[in-house]
């Protein structure tokens, strides 16, 4: 009798159907702008169209669009179309200027603007100190360098990015990245610095705002993790290193922060959806710049492998 009741119950559950209509607005494709630029290089803008999730259409390049570039509200030039949705300026971008692009695509008027920040010179490299760090809760130890450098923060709100460039005559390398970590607040991992974590993150580059030291001389500390095979390859390549220090447009900082959150959570079923910051009027994407200064940094000398 119990089995009969179970069969009846299952039959009832699967035979009772109700159609629930779901209305999804027919969202038209919008132009997507990828326009991240820096001082000393021509502007490059990539144009494509957006596609609704679940749509069978492909993301396509937007070709032969007339993109006008303005500098400090004065028309400068029409960008040159090359191929595959890529457009270029004929002149390099300069720090301290306001830039704006305007164009029409997919029957939409699109515009975006960005201020390319003033240069923030590195005053000096203060120290490069060999050390070791515990990289997880199990006590695994890695070789590291603690690096401090000093710069003069400018008045107002500013945002910065640190990267280490490997300069070598050999173009193809297996260790083409130097992995960095925070000693101070981890603005990318949303954690505190290395001293307060059983685990910490390593990154290809670091970002941070000037909230805690606005308009002052700042000595900033960060770290590099390396393996012995990295050092062997650097020595073999006779590699040199440069500290890349970028001052970021606020829109670029927000775009990179929210993009990383999106990448880190888009496969997490329980994570809240993350919206990537955009400053494109009438479209999606980013048009924003960063100003770069460089300083040579002797990592091999600090390791004792000159």
TrEMBL record:
<protein>
    <recommendedName>
        <fullName>DUF4249 domain-containing protein</fullName>
    </recommendedName>
</protein>
<dbReference type="InterPro" id="IPR025345">
    <property type="entry name" value="DUF4249"/>
</dbReference>
<dbReference type="Pfam" id="PF14054">
    <property type="entry name" value="DUF4249"/>
</dbReference>
């Amino acid at each position: 009798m119990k089995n009969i009741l179970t069969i009846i119950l299952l039959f009832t559950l699967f035979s009772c159907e109700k159609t629930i209509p779901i209305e999804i607005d027919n969202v038209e494709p919008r132009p997507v702008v990828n326009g991240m630029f820096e001082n000393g290089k021509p502007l490059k803008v990539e144009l494509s169209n957006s596609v609704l999730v679940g749509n069978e259409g492909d993301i396509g390049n937007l070709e032969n669009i007339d993109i006008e570039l303005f500098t400090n509200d004065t028309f400068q030039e029409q960008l040159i179309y090359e191929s595959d949705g890529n457009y270029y300026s004929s002149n390099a971008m300069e720090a301290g200027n306001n830039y704006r692009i305007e164009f029409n695509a997919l029957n939409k008027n699109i515009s975006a603007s960005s201020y390319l920040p003033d240069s923030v010179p590195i005053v000096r490299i203060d120290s490069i100190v060999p050390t070791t760090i515990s990289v997880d809760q199990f006590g695994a130890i890695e070789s590291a360098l603690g690096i401090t450098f000093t710069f003069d923060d400018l008045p107002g709100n500013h945002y910065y990015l640190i990267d280490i460039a490997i300069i070598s005559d050999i173009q193809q390398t297996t260790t083409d990245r130097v992995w960095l970590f925070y000693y101070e607040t981890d603005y990318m991992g949303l954690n505190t610095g290395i001293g307060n974590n059983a685990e910490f993150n390593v990154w290809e580059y670091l970002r941070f705002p000037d909230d805690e030291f606005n308009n002052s001389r700042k000595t900033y500390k960060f770290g590099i993790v390396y393996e012995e095979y990295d050092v062997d390859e650097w020595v073999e390549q006779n590699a040199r290193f440069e500290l890349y220090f970028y001052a970021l447009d606020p829109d670029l900082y927000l775009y990179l922060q929210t993009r990383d959150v999106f990448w880190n959570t888009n496969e997490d079923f329980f994570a809240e959806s993350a919206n990537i910051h955009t400053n494109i009027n009438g479209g999606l994407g980013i048009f924003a710049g960063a100003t770069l200064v460089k300083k040579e940094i002797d990592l091999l000398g600090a390791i004792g492998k000159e």
